[in-house]
Design brief:
By secondary structure, this protein is mainly beta. It contains one helix and 27 strands. Strands 8-12-11-10-9 form a five-stranded mixed beta sheet, with no helix packed on it. It has a four-stranded antiparallel beta sheet with strand order 4-5-6-7, with no helix packed on it. Strands 13-14-15-16 form a four-stranded antiparallel beta sheet, with no helix packed on it. A hairpin with a 5-residue loop joins strand 4 and strand 5. The radius of gyration is 18 Å and the shape is globular. The mean pLDDT is about 95.
Length: about 325
């Protein structure tokens, strides 16, 4: 949510060149499309609202980490993002979150297909970013989500290479400047993508097992130790692939989104929970066919999920709407 209402970001290939894009909507039903960056080889992958109301998107431009700032979600200015490594290193921002003391972004450095190291950046307002010093705890990682907690911040990420993820990891920080790695066996046995907190401040990460045969949720009181939610039928798909990709807090619990895949095409899906352990899958309906939900937010008019339609042959940007939770 921002000054223009809802803002989603992504990218598209036009005549063989990649361009970062943003979509804005006041109601979720009608969306306007604008370019985030006029250059090529630009990818916007996540967005957050700063405390001053401006919208901040992150991603990469060429081989450099990139961020952009907008007052209304339609006109964007490139931010200054300092690089920690050499100019020929491939660095990327993959997630961003805003809090009362500024913004924190996470990502990685390393080749597109091979081993990477996690990266973090901090910014007071989104216009200028400073990288966090490298640490041994960043080895083989890439940040996928960050959450604010009473003691500071918790981040989750993937282990492995750009071509194949082999597990997940967490990091904890009191100030966003120094991060402590948490290698937890439960996280290491899965692929974590999204992170949110229950009303009682319990952290819940969502994703899948290593083979994407079970949509998985993990719970933690403080990011130090993680407990995998019990296996249940609502998060399995008859031997096929199934995963959660994102999760958002609701007044009385959480809503997770993702998809399952049978022979070829995916089907978008969502799950609701009050405690992070027992999840209820949404009923099937035609609007979910061939869809992949990648992100979800709770707006004033209800839930808004974003993703694509038609994979693996076509990737058409798609929006799904759902009524707000009952009071």
């Amino acid at each position: 949510m921002g000054p223009a209402g809802l803002t989603a970001v992504g990218y598209v290939a036009i005549d063989g060149e990649w361009h970062a894009l943003a979509w804005t909507s006041s109601d979720g039903g009608t969306w306007r499309l604008d370019r985030v960056d006029e250059g090529t080889a630009a990818f916007a992958v996540d967005v957050a609202q700063a405390t001053d109301g401006r919208v901040v998107a992150v991603g990469r431009s060429g081989s450099a980490p990139a961020a952009w700032v907008s007052a209304d979600g339609t006109t964007w200015q490139a931010a200054t993002v300092a690089r920690l490594g050499a100019s020929d290193d491939r660095e990327r921002m993959t997630t961003v979150m805003a809090g009362p003391d500024g913004l924190i972004a996470g990502g990685s450095v390393g080749p597109e297909l091979f081993e990477r190291r996690a990266r973090f950046w901090r910014s007071a307002d989104g216009s200028s970013w400073d990288p966090v010093a490298d640490d041994d705890g960043f080895a083989e990682g890439e940040v996928t989500a960050i959450a604010r907690v009473p003691a500071g911040y918790v981040a989750i990420g993937r282990l492995g290479t750009g071509q194949r993820s082999t597990g997940s990891v967490a990091w904890r920080s009191a100030d966003g400047r120094r991060w402590q790695r948490v290698d937890d066996p439960a996280l290491a046995a899965g692929l974590a993508s999204g992170l949110a907190t229950l009303p009682d401040a319990t952290l819940v990460a969502v994703g899948s097992d290593l083979d994407e045969r079970e949509a998985v949720a993990w719970l933690s009181a403080d990011g130090r130790a993680w407990d995998r939610a019990p296996r249940e039928a609502s998060r399995l798909y008859d031997g096929g692939k199934i995963r959660m990709t994102d999760v958002v807090a609701t007044p009385d619990g959480l809503l997770g989104v993702g998809n399952f895949v049978g022979v070829q095409y995916g089907v978008a899906s969502s799950w609701s929970t009050r405690d992070g352990r027992a999840w209820t899958q949404s009923p099937m309906n035609p609007a979910l066919n061939q869809g992949e939900m990648l992100g979800v937010a709770l707006g004033p008019a209800g839930f808004v999920a974003v993703g694509s339609f038609g994979a693996p042959d076509n990737y058409i940007p798609t929006i799904w709407l759902s009524p707000p939770p009952a009071p």
